[in-house]
Every structure is written in C-alpha cells, then in structure tokens.
Amino acid sequence: MLKALRFAPSRFGRCFSTLVVAEHTQKGLHPATLSAINAAKKLQDDICVLVAGSGATEAAQEAAKLQGVSKVLHVDAPAYQYPVADQMANLLVAMQQKSSFASIMGPVSSLLKDVFPRLAGALDVQPLTDVMDIKSSDTFVRPTYAGNAIATVRSKDPVKVFTVRPTSFPTDGLEGGSAPVEPVTPPEGQPMVEFVKEEHAHDDKPQLATAKTVVSGGRGLRSKEGFDTVLDPLCQKLNAAMGASRAAVDAGFVPNDMQVGQTGKVVAPDLYLAVGISGAIQHLAGMKDSKTIVAINKDGEAPIFQVADYGLVADLFEAVPEMTDKVAQ
Amino acid sequence: MRALVAVKRVIDYAVKVRVKPDKSGVELNNIKMSMNPFCEIAVEEGVRLKEAGTLSELVAVSCGPDKSQESLRQALAMGADRAILLKTDYRTDMELQPLAVAKLLKKMVEKEDPMVVLLGKQAIDDDSNQTGQLLAGMLGWPQATFASKLAFNSGLTGVDVTREVDAGLQTISLKLPCVVTCDLRLNQPRYATLPNLMKAKKKPLEVVDAASLGVDMSPRLEYLSVEEPPKREGGRKVDSVDELLDKLRNEAKVLA
C-alpha cells in the first residue's frame, strides 16, 4: 500500500518536500532544530516542520518565522507531552502516507534516535544516523567508527530518513520567514508504551550531548571530591556541562552517564576543556570534533596535547581554580 | 520465559582503526576483533535475568561471517544457553545494514518465540543505533531504547525500563513481548573465565545460511568512499592560565 502512495500526487505545490521533525520545549525550539533546518535547505526542496507536543504553540510560532520554512505542521495533543517511539512513528507514517515526503529528517536526539528507525522499518527503508554533510538529495556524509572513518553513502531508498548532527550545521541565517501553521490531527490509538516519569539529574547544568561548552575530568582529579571542588566551580562559571573520561568513571569518581568517549557520549561543543585526561583513543573518539579543544595536564607528553588547540602543562589543582577565578561570570 | 540476545563482532574498541588507502573501507585484516561492548551489556543483562529466575532460556544470535562464532562462544561462556549464527559474507560494518539485520532477527523471533529481545544500543563500527528500533517496528512490539535499568513485574507480563535520554532519565512501562536496547550504565559485564569458555565449547551453536531465510539483505546504502577524518592541528602549548584565557577570548573567540 505504501508503495502506491509514494507516487501519489503531493498536496504541496512541488512534487517533493522535506519534513523536519522539530525538537522543542514548552518555551520554544531547541537550537538543534535550527541546525536541522539549515541542513534541510541543502536538499533544495520545500521544507515542512513538524512540531508535535502539548501546547507547544510558541515553538510552532517560532518555526513559522524561520526563513525557508514553507509550512509548519502542528500536533497539539496532551498525549504528545511526552512522546514515545511507537506513537511518534505512527504519526509520521500517517503523515508520510498523506504527503509523500522525499525526506524525513531531524536533529540527533534521544527521541529521534528512538523514533526514526522504527519509522524507517515501517517504510522499508534504511535510515541514516548523525549525518554531517549533505552532498545531494541522495548522498550523505556520516561518521563511522566513532568518527575515525568518514563515510560518504548514497541511499537507494525512495524516502530518505535521517538525523543530522547539529554541530555540523549553523543555527543562524533563518530570520524573516512567515509560514502558515496548520494543525494536524494525530492518528487514533493508545501508544504501546506508557510514560511513567522523567528525572533530570543535572538540571542546574546544560545537557552533555548538546552543551556549547564541556569541561571533562579524568583520573588526574584523583577523587569524587576533585570533581566537586575543582571542576564543578569552573563548570558553573562557564555554564558548561561536565564530562568525564572512562578512567574516571571506572575509578568510581563519577557516574557513567558523564562518560565522554566511544562507549559513552559523543560530543562536539564549541569549547572542550580536558582536565587531567591523558587522551586515550577511546576518549578522543568522543570529543575530537569539538571546535576548540583545551588540555590541562601535568604530563607534557600526554596524547591529548596532540589534538588540543591550546595545551597548558600545569598542575590542575592550581590551574583550574585560577582559571575559575579569572573567567568572567 | 525465553529471551533472544543479539551480538555483533566488531573491531575491538581499543584499536585505532585504519582507513584503507583506496578509500573502500577500514582495514579488517589482522585486526583484533571483539564482541561489541553494548552487546556484552545485553548478554550480561540476559544472564542476570536468568540467574534471577526471570528467564528460563537465553539464546544468543549473531549475523555475520564464520568468525562471529567467537562472539557467540563468548556469549555462551558468559551464560547464554545456546547460540545461532546467521552466516553471511557481507561485511558487517558496511554491507549488511541494520534494516537487513532486523529482518533476519525477525525471522529468528518468529522461530524462537521469545518474550524479550535484548540488543546493544549501537554497534561501535557503523554507529547506526537502529537495529533494535527497526526490529521492534517490524514486529509491532513496544521498544525501550538506551535502557539503564529493567524491572520486570512479578507476573512477567510487563517491564518498567529506565532510559538514558537527553534530559536525564526517563522511565517507561511496556507490556511483553518487547525489544530492549542496552546502554552503558545498565550493568558491568562479567569476564568469561577459562573454565566457562571450555564449557561453552560444549553448548549448542547452530549455523544457518542467512540467505536461506528468504530475506532481502542487499545493502540500501552504497558506500561511495570511506576516508580519514581531517587531522587536527593540535600541539600548541601556552605558558600560563592568563595566556590560555587570552587565546580563548581573542583568538578562538569561545569565551566572553
């Protein structure tokens, strides 16, 4: 059935269009959504933005003002306050059946990583994760082996389903749009998964995966207290997320949701500050796409200095507090 | 209650991968291979569920070349009861893609009738983070990705899963049967001891020609090139905190 619908005439002026699934909060769009829209522009199709939520009117209005957006599709339903994978995938399948998008994409996020493959399975297409560049409507660049091998791939599927890496695309240059906001009625039916609760562990800090600045500590901090008393004040001053090396996690200094590396989180902030981290391959894989890397380490021979834009050979227990004092709030 | 656990053999996480000069892929010859770290966590969770009496049988499945038997033996040594290799000569880091693996696993689900399928959240070679979700969608089962805690209810009809999401931790409730993908924080996998590795040699390991399952395994993504990432020009040292802050403010312009 889907096959026939793919070739059905589109409701839009042009035959092809891109659906960007927005990440947002009650307050507005997540900056990653702006990156995704700038990425979508490379496809040179009409851009529709889906804002699905409960009362996310501000996010929908904000999306409508973005240059290049031709239409905002807005699902406003209580059931979408905490969207779950099967519910979102069903919504997108229904939208695809109606509108035959050429591409369905959005920023890498825990929600879309959960949803998109499920959607792709329903459409019988092979999705792409973490796209860093778009060469043409069917050719994409993405990292494999934790960024140690960059693959250029051509999709043979009729619909491209993919997430983009927000830090690979700009967030600016989107002022001055005026697109209509069109309500969308989601499909009926209960989700298969029931949302129970959400706990925000580090509410006082930005999220590690999306922070502009990340300060990470390694075994050089010697203890949990080292993280609390030396690293944390600098994080607060810089409004940075706190990360850690696997060595620090294995030593029990910090929980492993803070681990940056191939088996932890892969981050690419504007500024990555590695403190007391030697720079094992495992760790480098998780942070080497950061725009600016700074290393503070006692050992001038540590491999981290080979990738650091700025390296300071110093005792972190002196240098970090000094830095904290001298950074403007 | 039976569970399937999917395992993948990949280049060991501690190895620095080398891209082939002809850009056709990364070098796999004479490279240390291991079970994907996230798959180890999935196996460990399955074994713990067996030890707790939640599972009666744990079946490990892998799709790939003959050598993938090594990873299945490791799963057996960790405590899985038996193993199935769906053998194919497609390169598992490029050509055998998650869509095809999910279709192959679906065939195994239909044959083995598990109540739970455990997978890692992603393989550290292709970094796709897709197979579990694709499989759940194809089966029409609920899914819980990035799991850091599982709590089955006493009647074994459902499970509460705590997930690692961008905002922190999220708990969802699922009815069985379901698909769960495991995050790093779920557990600390045990080492396969030598005696257990010896015992694992006696456990059943069935080899099935993947092509015999009637699944379209042809790659949907054509790899045009695989290249080294641009080299970073690191190595510039500064002498003081003041100089560092000055560079960050005025040269890199990442500090106010």
Automatic annotation (TrEMBL), chain A:
Entry GO CC: mitochondrial matrix
Cellular compartments annotated: Mitochondrion matrix
Domain of life: Eukaryota
Listed GO biological process terms: fatty acid beta-oxidation using acyl-CoA dehydrogenase
Key word Kinase present: no
MF annotations from Gene Ontology: electron transfer activity; flavin adenine dinucleotide binding
Domain Electron transfer flavoprotein alpha/beta-subunit N-terminal: 18-199
Keywords annotated in UniProt: Electron transport, FAD, Flavoprotein, Mitochondrion, Transport
Residue positions binding FAD: 219, 245-246, 259-263, 276-283, 297
Cofactor or coenzyme needed: FAD
Xref: InterPro entries: DHS-like_NAD/FAD-binding_dom, ETF_a/b_N, ETF_a/FixB, ETF_alpha_N, ETF_asu_C, ETF_asu_C_CS, Rossmann-like_a/b/a_fold
Cofactor-binding details, from the entry: Binds 1 FAD per dimer.
Coarse class of the protein's main subcellular location: mitochondrion
Entry keyword Ligase: no
Subunit structure: Heterodimer of an alpha and a beta subunit.
Job of this protein: The electron transfer flavoprotein serves as a specific electron acceptor for several dehydrogenases, including five acyl-CoA dehydrogenases, glutaryl-CoA and sarcosine dehydrogenase. It transfers the electrons to the main mitochondrial respiratory chain via ETF-ubiquinone oxidoreductase (ETF dehydrogenase).
Family assignment from sequence similarity: Belongs to the ETF alpha-subunit/FixB family.
Stated name of the protein: Electron transfer flavoprotein subunit alpha
Native species: Vitrella brassicaformis (strain CCMP3155)
TrEMBL record, chain B:
Biological processes per GO annotation: amino acid catabolic process; fatty acid beta-oxidation using acyl-CoA dehydrogenase
Entry keyword Transport: yes
Annotated protein name in UniProt: Electron transfer flavoprotein subunit beta
Chain ranges of the Electron transfer flavoprotein alpha/beta-subunit N-terminal domain: 23-217
Family: Belongs to the ETF beta-subunit/FixA family.
Compartments it resides in: Mitochondrion matrix
UniProt GO molecular function: electron transfer activity
Function: The electron transfer flavoprotein serves as a specific electron acceptor for several dehydrogenases, including five acyl-CoA dehydrogenases, glutaryl-CoA and sarcosine dehydrogenase. It transfers the electrons to the main mitochondrial respiratory chain via ETF-ubiquinone oxidoreductase (ETF dehydrogenase).
